């Protein structure tokens, strides 16, 4: 299971690598050193991945990532794709912000 100390001590490698937390949550560490919280799930027979956000300054905490994981699992249980819902919300936000310019 991940802790803030473990996350802070993760070092980049030549290739992206993953470190598991719990309940399907994991972090992906890029060669540039970026650490992102992700969740892989299956919906309608398809594998999908949602990225919750980056860890670190200006990003999200481990506790926030676990909360988002709970929300994503509820969506999957309801037959909704968390990744598609996230993209839809971002698109709606973009449309609304264009309308205010």
TL;DR of this structure?
By secondary structure, this protein is α+β, with helices and mostly antiparallel strands.
Can you characterise this structure?
The protein has 3 helices and 4 strands. The chain has helices at 4-8, 62-77, 82-99; strands spanning 17-20, 25-29, 35-43, 46-54. It has a 4-stranded antiparallel sheet with strand order 1-2-3-4. The longest helix has 18 residues, at 82-99. InterPro entries: Integrase_DNA-bd_sf, Integrase_DNA_bind_dom, Phage_Integrase. Pfam families: Arm-DNA-bind_3 (PF13356). This is DUF4102 domain-containing protein. Residues 2-88 form the Integrase DNA-binding domain.
- Which second-level CATH architecture applies? 2-Layer Sandwich
Instruction: Give the strand line-up of the largest sheet.
Output: 1-2-3-4
* CATH overall fold name: Double Stranded RNA Binding Domain
Q: How many whole angstroms does the radius of gyration measure?
A: 15 Å
> How many beta-strand segments?
4
What are the secondary-structure elements, in order, as H or E? HEEEEHH
Counting helices, strands and paired strands, the structural category is alpha+beta
* Range of strand content: 25-35%
Largest sheet: 4 strands, antiparallel
Pfam families: Arm-DNA-bind_3 (PF13356)
Domain Integrase DNA-binding: 2-88
Family: Belongs to the 'phage' integrase family.
Keywords: DNA integration
